[in-house]
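If you are new to this repository, start here. Below is one unmodified record pulled from the training split, so you can see the exact layout before writing a loader.
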Amino acid sequence: MKLGMVMPVILQEQALLDCTRAAVEQLTTTHDAVLYVICNRLHVCTSEELQADLQGRFRGNVVVVNEPGVVRSVAGSWNAGGQMALADNAEYICFVANDTRLRENCLDELTAFGQRTDVELWSAISYNNRPGIDSGQVTDGADFSCFMMRRRRSGTLAGSIRTFGRPISRTTITTRA
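And here is the target side for that same chain:
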């Protein structure tokens, strides 16, 4: 199974690069994975330097997209990375923020949840200042700092990637700890 991960980044200063490095180190999975880093305002290094740096921190392949002069919103970055992952035949696509730290098995748990359910979009939830979370509980709240969608047989994402940036009203949203 192939997992695509999309991470929008704005790297205008060293602290944001350090934050991104730490987030990438937390992206662990047992699946074949590709990380698509969609840059906006990359000022701290070249895209080639960023790719080499992040490749050393990630167990799969890293693709860095930097188009000078092109500034995307987070939703636009999700769209660009999601389309790349679909073109590379990813079965599941995870969208993750560069300030998010995932637990070691988070990506595999999210993938397994998608395999056993028919929901179209599901997410992890934050454990920050929330002791006693029941990781088996399914709720209707989604955390968009880390969420996942599956590829449809038609080769598109469930819920249509074109809906990002607008309220998602035609999609079943489920949260998994």
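Two things worth knowing about this chain: The chain is about 25% helix and 25% strand. The two ends are 22 Å apart (CA to CA).
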